[in-house]
Amino acid sequence: MLKPKRKITRDEIKKDSFVESVFEVRSFVKENLKLFYQIGGGVALFFLLIIFLGQSSKNNKLEAEFLLTQSTLYLDGGDVQNAKILLQELVDEYDGTEAGRLGGYHLAQIYIRDNDNELALPLLIKYSKSGDNPFLLSSSNEAIASMYMQINNLKKAIEYQSSSLKYSNTKKTLAFSKLKLVEMYIKEGSIERSKELIAELKNEYSDDQDINDKIDYVVGLLMNR
After folding, report:
1. Which distant-in-sequence residues (6+ apart) come within 8 Å of 132 by Cβ?
2. pLDDT at 96
3. Which of 6, 20, 59, 195 is the most exposed place for a label (fewest CB within 10 A)?
């Protein structure tokens, strides 16, 4: 009769990855001992350090991915408090990994739901600068722009809304992002730039009724300036 597989704990992952690092370095030393004597101890030590740092980076990635998976399971189960603890650990200890940056993004979403933009903003800014996922980069930049709009920092709002355009994954998403940018320019008083973008949108989306309805709306805002 087959026994159920035992879940691997985080401590076991850390222990196994450390042991793996030690054995890999030790094996490398044994295989290249003669070479180390020939090229000198200092250079050999340098090579050992490079190897160990590379393995350490690999281990950090593995541990961060484990934490991210666990936090996702907590969130799916409705246990937000424990999810926040793990996500904060990801931010504090593994921000050099993509899993760590994703942890920050997901923690920011929790803060946004709690109406705590002050805590969410720096996490989103960090992801917007170094994250890898285009969809989340677009989402992060738009969320940051919205937060700056709420505190009337139009310069920053326009900066991040403009950045979101680079990561739009569909033509329609790009159009709606541009329309948000037009509204920001109108509020700022950049009338000529608003007109330029409206003209571009009319030319590119003449056959899309949804987009044209939104264009009519921002044209109305512009006329009321």
Report:
1. 98, 101
2. 87
3. 6
Domain ranges of the chain: 15-132
Any idea which residue has 């094996």 for tokens?
27
Chain segment 172-211, per-residue pLDDT in tens: 999 999 999 999 999 999 999 999 999 999 999 999 999 9
pLDDT digits (tens, 9 = 90+) for 146-166: 999 999 999 999 999 999 999
Give this prediction's pTM.
Answer: 0.74
Whose tokens are 């020939």? That residue is 38
